[in-house]
Amino acid sequence: MKATYVFGHRNPDTDSVCSAISFSYLKNQLGENTLPRVLGHINKESSFVLNHFGVKEPDYLNNVKVQVRDIHYCKDFMMRELVSIKDVVDFMQENHCTAVPIVDEKKHLISLITLKEIAMMFIENTHSHLTTSYDLILKAVNGQEILRFKEEFDGETYAGSYQSQTFIEKAPLKTSDILIVGDRFKVLHHGILSKVSLIVLTNHCTLDSELLELARENKVSVISSSLDTYNTCTQIALSNYVKTIIMNPSPMVVHELDYLTDFVAEANKLGHTNYPVLNNKNECLGLIRITDVGSYDKKNVILVDHNNLEQSVPGIDEANIVEIIDHHNLGAIGTSIPINVRCMPVGCTCTILYQLYQEKNVEIPKEIAGLMLSAILSDTLILKSPTTTENDRIAVLALAKICGEDYEKYGYEMLKAGSSILGMAVEDIIYQDFKSYKVGNENLGISQVITMDFDSIKENLQEYVDKLNEIAKGDYGTVTLFITDIIQNGSYILFNDDSKNIIEDSFGIQNLEQGTFIPDLVSRKKQMLPKIMESLERNS
Q1: Under a CB-based contact definition with an 8 Å cutoff, are residues 445 and 478 in contact?
Q2: What pLDDT shows up at residue 506?
Q3: Quick check: pTM over 0.85?
């Protein structure tokens, strides 16, 4: 069963990390195949939570773009170097392809053979030399085994088409040669005495007892072909090992982890039709044709704790969103098919997950209960945030009982562990919990840091403002950093210089200075974001 990725937003907070793990566990208990993932480095608080409850950190998910391995290309489509040219041509015709990768015994790519190259080879060359096996010759000339003394042949081919005496005089045969001839006693006798490696009889001819015995004594292999001399000469050339016509030992290739968009761009530039597909071990996996790019499997994903494109994984527009569990306002994510969406006005995504566990009648293990409890305590600031609902309180009491924690005591330990900014770079602090929003044609960035140590930020206040200004010069009109102190129950605010009027209007403060403390301002979702969005809409 194809795995579905479950993940929260970029710059993951505790709710995002714990929701991904908890919902993935629930889904798997219900018989689905899901994998929890994170979209960035987890913060100190989340790390504390995972360590406290002995849960492994989810793997990092770089993107969900369509890759070559997701395309319905010709998998396991390749041939070994010791097959015949005829086998290759037949293989192409049977599979309606114009090329095939040639590999060695370890599936390492040797060449890409195309039908055009084979055709040109026969047009431009005489193909008198043969390097092949007895069995491949039998197959090529629709032959019957008469005598077999060798399994492989490597020599020139001669057709006994002259008068006998002329042929004997003009064709001094060597022991490595292959003689193609009909019912011509003298030519056959000459070939056998010359101890050629192989005689191919045409038109169903056979050797009389005298020549047969002579051939046996001289260890000359013999095959009888059903074809006439002309067609035998033509078809026997197709019995050559395909390795004898390798023209391009370094063809253009793609790797299974390459992105579809990159492959299409490169293919349009090169103009080729066929490309061998390799894995990271340099093994050939098959052939991709430019006509295959329209058929592929998208990655299946479940979004938790977000539903906004700007906050999700790169390539989300190329994925199948199969479910959304969130407690934020609805963003601009569309789907091609109906999906399950559970969005509720509660303080934390894990509150919704707690209800889903109850509805599905799935027992919550101690460690999962601990993760869900931690997420709710983090998002609701130990149930003190204005986002807190009765559903959050019910979930906290139930989950604390399962995992055996005093939720208030544990909650303060958790927030304290996550609030330290000692030794962190300014940029890391800002991006620790940074979220982007689209308001009309403008991008809004809101970062929130929970710490009781504003003094260390105040010492380098201008450095923070400079970094916000730098971020704003990219794609943002307004960028803010709220430093939330849960003891004082409020937040200090920093902002990019060009957004001062918007921030003053948002919070009704004239002559607003950087680092101003705003009491009772602790919730990004219910207090910070709505006020700034309203101001941006009023002033647009």
Answers
A1: yes
A2: 94
A3: no
